[in-house]
């Protein structure tokens, strides 16, 4: 499942865990699913190369015990890789190898357990949906992105298209049976933009290798054939000019090391293969774009400075003025000829990008910023050409040119775009930092057939393949996702999870690529490499969040449809109004500068209106702030899934908290035992554990863990056999153990079974509930023999967090499936006034809807499967990072550290982000609402102040830069100081 990496990323292990096998020559069992020798090497190869998934609807499950029995039955089958059963939605998701088992056999196995099963979806058939990402070059404003989005949506087979101006990317969900990604690239290019495919959405990885050696057509064919014969290789593309092979492959079948070995083994080792030296896609494009704008601005400046000097400076310097006024032909002067000569390459060569952008926009019936720039500069340039041409052909006409206007406009706009792209690159620094976490080198352990270490080899970490055994020395970064098979240490996971304290690791524990090993040597088995790693998936989640549009963005999108046409109308109206006013003596002749006439003055006002208007700033106001906000959140362990979640979170005024695992630690422990009959405590717990080991309930697991303390010499003790096991949802379990009828559960179960509860047991139950603990009764042969008190401690920061939320005017409510006594005690302890206890999953969702109907904007905070309906129903679902995959998948915000105070961080960050978005809109709209009237000359009658077009162009360029810089200030976000005080006082602990 897509969110599984988050539970991997946030798993914790207790610091008290013991060591592990520290023998000098570790031996690693291969842990096969089948007995050794049961499968031939060919069968194993087939099994690994043809993995499929299937989704079953399972009817009849009533509790987690039912789900557990289905899961165990399916996992026991040959050919099953993984099985996940969702009791809430009555679904079973199974990953299997079709060479060994089929969907019908799996379905029959589920029915043999006692439930009705139906195949819902089988991906052995062709997938009906793919998601690809395309990098877009050439977008200038929100009008471009909306036009391109519409063009992609119109392509048959496209289900959804999102185009982000800030990231210059498109994410497209499409049906591969109807349309290929090549057609999508064509659609982008037909819209007038350059398209680069960055991801096809297929379950493949891609590698580019540079080949050294003497090439010829025969050797190329040999290498290509060798690669294509390798299992898992899907496509091989050759670029003979760069000596480059591009290879697409499936990570579960092969890897980069195998590919390089095949190449270097071809034709007796004549060739050497290495990674092609190429930077990452988005960053490479960003750097190239920055270089292009820098070069364009530099060349534009080289031509524009002399134009500026000849028109604005030399006219005031005696000698130079006479030289510039020297006649060449008739009334054409040297200064005019120089300006014409220098302005032409600026207009048509350096400014060529604006003509291309305008043509593409107009061709598709839209207008963007390029259209405004083209119209403004062309008006200034071609009027100047007309004026100087007339002067050259007339002995009396004295020309007035605006070549400096067109040249300086283009120069300032290019400077603005350069600064804008430079600033926009900084908005995605969070992703760049995440990607840099992966180490450059790794130590590969070489094993013999028995699994003994016989050597080690240092290699490029990009060469790691699935099932490799990697050695991680103290101080080194973990090179790949995997699990520990030897050694013990502490690993600093703060760079991924935000967890400040190092986490203890021993044999069997999972580790995350990019984290830092602190103090011991670990040997890990790689399980997820390349794009499958937790780090890669976090990066993809943040990228997707930055692609998603916030609802407030619709405001800018609506304006952009009419903005440019409206500005063009205003510009022509301004020009016409001033011209008519001058023609019919609407203002004194003395208002007209000596170097101009009526038309030239009107033209300057019209051009200024056209070029000061800036649709870019409006388009960048929301996405740049969302990009920085989600990036800052990720760096603080708060993963926000897009602009919608950010926008909803800042309005939250009511939070519904789940109890277990959210307000409490989620690790219940037995804190007290009272035996009512003479029994040996060890024997008592043996029979209780024998029954409870079959249950998936957290309380049952707590009892089993406590029982293990009586068998400290055994790592995985074997409990007595439990016959006729039965789980009673919400009450407890029944079983026959050692010929004794055992009933373990709550008071309601005992009353239903007509078991007498003595007074002293009643008193202990009341005392337990008063201490916010859960009481569990144990009956043997229908006689009560013991009472267990189980405590799930409150998170140390819970009370403080509720208090801070009250100060933020956010109402807190607790909902739990636990009994009323325990629920009220917990609520009283943390300061929550409203409690809902003994609630089923659907009751939680109903409560959320009731609060929404009452006018609240509701956030739900939970961590379990039973929280999923409420997480989906809430305006904002927040999942505790250590919770279940299903809860994380349903949530809008994931709190990776599992700290409760990150609820406050998420709300505060969203509020700060949206205040920044509002400020951005004030900047963007302010420039236009104030600048356009000034450019149109509203101040001219009273103050004689007019805004020259080149200054208007500079103001327009500055508006985009100021909006992006305003968003970048969010990078300085610090969570509320009161939360730092919690850490200083030691409240925030595991």
UniProtKB/TrEMBL annotation:
Bilayer topology: Multi-pass membrane protein; Peripheral membrane protein
UniProt record similarity statement: Belongs to the cation transport ATPase (P-type) (TC 3.A.3) family. Type IB subfamily.
Gene Ontology CC annotations of this record: membrane
UniProt keyword Metal-binding, yes or no: yes
Protein name: P-type Cu(+) transporter
Catalytic function, reaction form: Cu(+)(in) + ATP + H2O = Cu(+)(out) + ADP + phosphate + H(+)
Residues passing through the membrane, by range: 296-317, 337-355, 367-386, 406-423, 562-581, 601-621, 921-941, 947-970
Gene Ontology process terms (BP): plant-type hypersensitive response
Domain HMA span(s) in chain numbering: 52-118, 130-196, 205-271
Gene Ontology MF term list: ATP binding; ATP hydrolysis activity; copper ion binding; P-type monovalent copper transporter activity
Cell compartments where the protein resides: Membrane
Region (Disordered): 14-47
The species this protein was found in: Rhododendron simsii
